[in-house]
Design goal:
481 residues; mainly alpha; Arc Repressor Mutant, subunit A; two-stranded parallel sheet; 20 helices; elongated
Length: 481
């Protein structure tokens, strides 16, 4: 079997969103699962809408998401160029072949004429296809008119009475009659190829074996099938994945939380959590596993596991995955991901010492179980930096009880005798307080927590003491004794 080659081909007319990020992920997973090659191609022939900013954002989004490509921009490869705008000479070569073989012709109809015709077809409830007015213009006459400066589009001379047929991993056999496709435009008046034309040339020359993309491309695929056949080139295999809908089953939009990929980064989502979430939008693990690392997905990925039913974008599920990955990612790795938020909050220097990093690592080990997104850490850190907090009246009433005063004094004296505050020694100290003072439950834990944190709940007290350090613990206890 020839080596599997897939591609992700974004159009840089906007930023990378959930839908095209999922397409990129599915292609990446398939290439990884089968030892294939992933090609990144930038489809920038829409010169009016394509921007360098969008190209850079797409590339940076893929890098952050953890999707690496084997050929394409910044990587290179033998079958480039990988920007369509750099491939115009290639398209021209194949255009000349189609024209000489009478499989394409030049159309001089104006935009106004074409709009009038399509409006009439809509009124009569007819397929919106070109009527072939310019098909009879001799090629030499067409060339003379263009040489004289008359603008022209290149149209496909769509074969009559044929059926465009392709097999799809998700949809099965898909058919469309050629008269429903019509003489589509292959090249615009400015010479740039249209999407349906350029994508066929590129996929042929880049030896793409499998095309994995959203179901919104199904109507395009029938057009592309006829162009492949015009070049007598075998079709790639297709898999058109289901649409993504919002939680209310309507078209996915920003109100459902469908921001750009870099927005998810800024909000504190982990790339591995987003990969996990995206993989399950229209695909299922054969063992129904949901919380997955990359290896789980790659080992199980199969094009026959796609669903026809629309996938539902559920922000609550994404948050669940993110919290799971925060809890289960290697401590060093997750600490590094949390660090920008600690630096931004001025809780940590941008170039921390070994001692400061060790403290941050301990902090993350304690509070990460409470974090759904990375930015949540900012809720749990201030307590370790703010010594002079104010207790509520209810907390004061509890702390000022005689038994609470004895407890806090006992704790203070024990801590003064310690060289270092460690988890085990703090737990032993609290157990001895329980035994000697006869306190348990809220009567034991609440006064200590209120005195040390000014909060009703939080991390385990032994961890709080470790993170505060001996000096801060003694200072906070002294204020209330």
């Amino acid at each position: 079997m020839d080596k599997i080659r897939v591609r992700f081909a974004p159009s840089p007319t906007g930023f990378l969103h959930i839908g095209n990020a999922r397409t990129a992920l599915f292609n990446w997973l398939y290439a990884k699962s089968i030892g294939g090659t992933l090609v990144l191609r930038i489809e920038d022939t829409d010169q009016k809408r394509s921007t360098k900013e969008a190209v850079d954002m797409a590339i940076n989004s893929l890098k952050w998401l953890g999707i690496n490509w084997d050929e394409g921009p910044e990587v290179g490869g033998d079958l480039g160029p990988y920007f369509q705008s750099d491939r115009l000479d290639i398209y021209k070569k194949y255009t000349d072949i189609l024209v000489e073989e009478n499989k394409a012709y030049y159309c001089f109809c104006t935009s106004e004429e074409l709009e009038k015709k399509s409006n009439m077809q809509k009124t009569l409830n007819q397929p919106i296809v070109y009527d072939g007015k310019c098909k009879s213009i001799p090629l030499e006459d067409a060339k003379k008119r263009m040489a004289a400066g008359e603008p022209a589009r290149l149209r496909f001379n769509c074969p009559k009475n044929e059926t465009a047929i392709f097999e799809d991993y998700v949809r099965g056999t898909v058919k469309k009659e050629s008269h429903e496709v019509g003489d589509i435009v292959l090249c615009r008046e400015d010479g740039f190829p249209t999407y349906n034309y350029a994508v066929v040339i590129d996929d042929m020359l880049m030896k793409i074996t499998h095309v994995i993309r959203g179901e919104d491309h199904i109507s395009n695929t029938s057009k592309q099938v006829l162009i492949y056949e015009a070049f007598n080139y075998p079709l790639p295999k297709f898999a058109h994945t289901s649409m993504i809908l919002g939680s209310d089953k309507s078209k996915l939009s920003k109100r459902h939380g469908a921001s750009t990929i870099m927005d998810f980064k800024d909000e504190g989502y982990l790339p591995q959590a987003l990969r996990n979430f995206l993989a399950l939008l229209g695909w299922t693990h054969p063992e129904a596993i949901e919380n997955m690392r990359d290896d789980d997905m790659i080992k199980a990925f199969n094009l026959n596991r796609f669903s026809k039913s629309p996938a539902i974008f559920d922000m609550a599920k994404l948050r669940h995955f993110n919290a799971w990955h925060i809890r289960n990612t290697d401590l060093d790795e997750i600490t590094k991901l949390f660090m920008p938020y600690l630096v931004e909050g001025k809780f940590l220097n941008s170039q921390p010492t070994e001692e400061e990093y060790a403290w941050a690592k301990k902090l993350v080990s304690v509070v990460r179980h409470n974090c759904v997104v990375l930015s949540d850490i900012s809720k749990y850190v201030p307590v370790f930096f703010e010594n002079d907090f104010t207790l509520t009246d209810e907390m004061k009433a509890i702390v000022e009880k005689e038994e609470s005063k004895k407890l806090l004094l006992f704790i203070k004296e024990k801590i003064e005798a310690m060289n270092e505050l460690e988890d085990a020694s703090i737990k032993d100290m609290i157990k001895s307080a329980q035994k000697e003072l006869g306190l348990k439950g809220p009567a034991l834990y609440h006064p200590i927590r209120f005195a040390l944190t000014g909060a009703n709940e939080g991390s385990e007290l032994s961890h709080v003491c470790e993170l505060l350090g001996k000096e801060n613990v003694l200072y906070r206890l002294s204020k209330l004794i």
